[in-house]
UniProtKB/TrEMBL annotation:
Keywords: Membrane, Transmembrane, Transmembrane helix. The chain crosses the membrane at residues 227-246. The keyword Ribonucleoprotein does not apply. This is Glycogen accumulation regulator GarA. It comes from Acinetobacter stercoris. The gene is garA. Residues 23-72 form the FHA domain. Pfam families: FHA (PF00498). It comes from the Bacteria.
Amino acid sequence: MTWKIQAITGEMTGQEIDINRDMLIGRSQEADIVLQSGEISRRHAAFLLKDKALWVQDLGSSNGTFVNDLRIDHETLLKENDIVQFASLKFSVLEPAAIRKMAESDVLETDTKENLASETHSDLVSANPPIEQPIEAIATAEVKSPVEDKQAAAQQMNEQGMPSLSERSNDVSVSANGMPQNISVPKPAPIPEGVDVHATPEPKPVVIPETKTMVEQEKEQRKNASVGLMTIIVLIILAVIAWLFFK
């Protein structure tokens, strides 16, 4: 399988070049594809064939190699209708017919599989329509009778702390809803004499301990230092007098 490039600019416009192996592009006569232009380096770029795929690699050229107007600095994979450019010379990439046919057959096979799967699903749905359940088939357990509702309400009242009928006093009358009636409310305890419930207690003054300021503390420290110094001087004088006396 042979890839091709077709010149679309310069003096070679319209010419096709076969790429059937690794090929060197440059201004040098030793290159596989010789491009006679001053802007082309002697060893400008190279085409590489790897697993039937075409790659292009720049070889440190001065004016660069481009793929679809983007400058490349490493190996780049090429595909059908890509524009590869060496300096200002542009070429269109032509994919081999065999590879193009394989790609088209893969796409056709994928579409065929998807269509078959869709048709199979439609056939299964049409052959087995969903069964609608009649209204009469609804479980009777889902329909609650009024008696069950009353029993559930009574049970909920018992769980919330409502005493049962057997625990209630016989003297207490009960309404139709089961609530006790004519219940006397106990009176509050009497207030002692001499106590004014509306009086507000007077706030007690808070005693804040006096703290010495920094100036006072510094004065006290100087005073203590002066007293200590005077004491030392007096002791020295007494020692000198005693020494002179006993001498």
